[in-house]
Specification:
It contains six helices and nine strands. It has about 210 residues and is α/β, with parallel strands linked by helices. The chain is elongated and about 70 Å long.
């Protein structure tokens, strides 16, 4: 694939405040770990509220996975009074990030009332989607030709949910693309790259430079 578009990025921090107590008397406290679990499940509603799909992107839908969870109490026999977790939203360009944030706060407010908690939702990072690079742009066609010469395979222009430096160029009105060959191991255990890919990609860049 040749990356020609990116989804909006919205990273959210959730701070749940309840009441810390001894584990033997949970009725005297407000358990934020239980509250966080309920909120994480409730946030799956975002998939139904923002259901559109765009075949340009892989995956074609918006995604809202919970990711990082900060430590709470250090021992087993304490009901936590504070919990912090994060949501990584990758949103199709057809949806404003502000609409997603409003929906998240609505869901968080409902769970807070149901569980007797205080929930704060804080945007940690926001990067609205930029206009995509046209799939017939000269740079796209040049990369397609270079990949075919080196690898003998057709590279398809597509959009991704990840964020790259191409967004800065597109925001400035430049038709940027991103391309490389790599194993599908990003952010996984034992992430690696292959020397054969590095050599092949260097050849692609050389053909691209000559073509342009």
């Amino acid at each position: 694939m040749i990356e020609v578009a990116e989804k909006s990025m919205l990273w959210l921090k959730f701070v749940l405040t309840g009441k810390q107590v001894h584990g033997s008397t949970p009725e005297k406290g407000v358990n934020t770990l239980s509250g966080a679990a309920h909120l994480i499940v409730a946030l799956e509603e975002l998939n139904d509220r923002f259901p559109n799909q765009d075949p340009l992107f892989s995956p074609p839908n918006s995604t809202f996975p919970p990711t990082r969870k900060e430590a709470n109490v250090p021992n087993i026999n304490t009901v936590p009074g504070e919990d912090v977790f994060y949501l990584d939203c990758r949103v199709l360009p057809c949806y404003p990030s502000e609409d997603v944030l409003a929906a998240v706060r609505e869901i968080a407010g409902r769970v807070a009332r149901e569980r007797g908690l205080k929930v704060e939702v804080e945007p940690v990072y926001q990067a609205p989607a930029t206009p995509p690079t046209r799939t017939d742009a000269p740079v796209v066609k040049a990369v397609e030709r270079a990949v075919m010469r080196v690898y003998g395979r057709r590279a398809e222009p597509m959009g991704i949910g990840g964020g790259t430096v191409a967004a800065f160029f597109r925001r400035a009105g430049l038709p940027a693309v991103v391309w490389s060959s790599s194993p599908d191991t990003a952010h996984r255990p034992n992430e690696y790259c292959l020397l054969s890919n590095l050599i092949g990609d260097a050849k692609v860049l050389a053909h691209l430079a000559i073509d342009i």
